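Researcher: Good morning. I'm working through a list of sequences from a screen, and I'd like to move beyond sequence-only analysis. For each chain I'm collecting a predicted structure so we can compare shapes side by side. This is the next one on the list. No need for commentary yet; just the structure.
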Amino acid sequence: MDAPEVRDRRGRRCFDPMKKPFPLQALDDGPKAVRPLHVERRRDMVEEPRIVHDHVRWEAWSRFQGIVRPKLGRTAETVRWTTRTGKGLYASAPSRDLVLETRRILQGDRLRLRPLASTDLRRCVKWFSDPQIIHFLGRNSPVTLPEEERWFRDYERRTDEQIFAIEAEGLHIGNIGLHKIDRVHRKSEVGIVIGEPTFWSKGYGTEAMRTALLYAFGPLSLNKVSLDVLEYNTRAIRIYERLGFNREGVHREDIYKDGRFVHVIRMSILARELREPAVP
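Model: Good morning. Structure tokens for this chain:
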């Protein structure tokens, strides 16, 4: 028997993956339509709110006898739905394209952060083949387009990182990403590159980093964000410190660059430590 037709709070047609007669109620950040998805029932109950998957906070009520949750596959995000009965229904998005539509675009004063797309890869290859940029990265050799495409396919399967393209003045000028997102311990790592030299030394990196941190400490509810920076990248270190990052330690002679071993400085920031960067 076909799944009954129901409508969400906005009057949009959707279908109940469990083929139940009760209607689904969409949250504001849900996709435009729901497709029948494979789900599995979980018998153990949780009586208090708990984070279970990337970008999703959910609740289970002890008066019910089961929780429906998705089988995680090639998805980067779980879209939450709630039934009128109070039982939590969590449907995984069928493709990354749908996930990207539901992810928010982060807006700064002069720039915006949007999800990285496959059409951005050629520009990324150009940046990561520039000796001026490689000098400040943890790698020594340029990347090729096939390597970048393989990396992007792997990224599409990952559920613990989110990478944004930095756009300013209508141009894609760099990337910033949250990596190793740990929703249990509420922490992640961050990395940034401004690939267009004409946008260097103009504060775009600082603004992009602060915008990403506001997203990490706000909607993602993270408590700590860490990064690694080469010891001679003193300008980046000053920017991070003005934002509130603190030095945790040093990985001694951790990278071999330009014929010598280089120390890597470990820095981190807690949610309560984020501040407006002071004027240099």
